[in-house]
Amino acid sequence: KLLVANRGEIARRIMRTCREMGIGTVAVFSEADATAPFVAEADQAVLLGPAPANESYLVVEKILAAAEATGADAIHPGYGFLAENAEFARAVTDAGLIWVGPPVSSIEAMGSKLGAKEIMSAADVPTLPSIRIDPADEDAVAKAADDIGYPVLVKASAGGGGKGMRIVDDPSDLQAAAEGAAREAAASFGDDTLFIEKYLPAPRHVEVQIFGDESGEVVSLYERECSIQRRHQKIIEESPSPAVDDELRTAFGEAAVAAGKAVGYVGAGTVEFLLDSDGSFYFLEVNTRLQVEHPVTEEVTGLDLVRLQLEVAQGHPLPDEAKDPGMDGHSIEVRLYAEDPTNGFLPVTGTVTGFALPDTVRVDSAVEAGSEVSVHYDPMIAKVISWAPTRTEAARVLASALRKAE
């Protein structure tokens, strides 16, 4: 029996594979999600508390109590919320439950961007030049930027989603950028550790899906292109990348596998890279969880990544089809958001009066007709995924389906 410590479309996605595998499911939910589809689809459901995440989905003690009350054997964190929280992973295993995720040590090693870069450099994974800084030491900050060479990026070591990050082209802007990034990092992550790294003006964002098992095997399930972003958030993803040929794909895969082995990785993870226009690439970070965009990898490899997660978590080795995966056709995913395009794409709330798309695409959705979209959570309500033999056709199929959405 698996407790899904998450909500919305990823909870439904995980439960779908559980049903196919004959595994019982437990949903945990907030008061705002009481009538959500993922709650109805679970075999059991436990109310965590009020709508705010810090009173429900982020409260470790409540989630563990729900697991105990329902007799759950394992916990899957999905993505977001507590998915990359090493203390949660430790608490799950300390409670005698199976953690569907990488070892606590892997999560901790990748939790600091600075620490992760040091580990990757030691493993001969290409990294961008970077220097840790203390904003209070203005001379040292200035020297670090000069040593790296403008333009530079001021980044929070604990950051993500564009928070605690500043691009600096002019030395006169550097100190204010460092102080602002430190404040934002402290507020968002409780950690104001900063570093400066070389800024690439127009890189592609390419990530590699890796999978490891307890025998030490780590494999690459190929790359995803995630360069189409808004406010540093991915909105369209595809596999394979149109910028990656067979030779570069091999290099990406070898670097990603080396990254995984360097931290003893087990389960599903994603190694993110920046690809420069000259074909060189650099390590960005490791996401120690299942990614939002995992469906495009599933579509081109034919693998069920959640099934693989559950099998590996039970101690099984990776199957042959994962050790030597094929790649067939092209897949593109778009994220659907509850937003107002006439008002700066600001999130909106309310009732979904209708929700239907053609069966030419895969839809991983948090909502159905009649669902309520709450103010309390991310405005992404669904993902629409196409597959076709070619990229052009995959784009056409996706565009056609979106035009026909009701």
In short:
This protein is of the alpha+beta class. The chain has helices at residues 8-21, 37-41, 60-70, 86-94, 104-111, 113-122, 138-148, 174-189, 246-262, 294-301, 305-313, 320-323, 391-403, and strands spanning 2-4, 25-30, 44-49, 74-76, 98-99, 130-133, 152-160, 163-168, 194-198, 204-212, 218-230, 233-239, 267-275, 281-287, 330-337, 339-340, 346-347, 350-351, 362-365, 372-373, 380-388.
User: Strands across the major sheet, in which order?
Assistant: 14-13-10-11-12-15-21-19
Which band does the percent of strand residues land in? Answer: 25-35%
Kindly state the number of beta strands.
Answer: 21
What is Rg? 21 Å
Structural class: alpha+beta
The helix content, as a percent range, equals: 25-40%
Distance between the termini: 36 Å
Sum up the overall morphology in one term: globular
Low-confidence segments, given as residue ranges, are none
- Overall pLDDT: 96
The helix tally amounts to 13
Task: Give the biggest beta sheet.
Answer: 8 strands, antiparallel
Explain what the structure shows.
The chain is of the alpha+beta class. It contains 13 helices and 21 strands. Strands 14-13-10-11-12-15-21-19 form an eight-stranded antiparallel β-sheet, sandwiched between helices. Helix 4 packs antiparallel against helix 5. The model has no long low-confidence stretch (mean pLDDT 96).
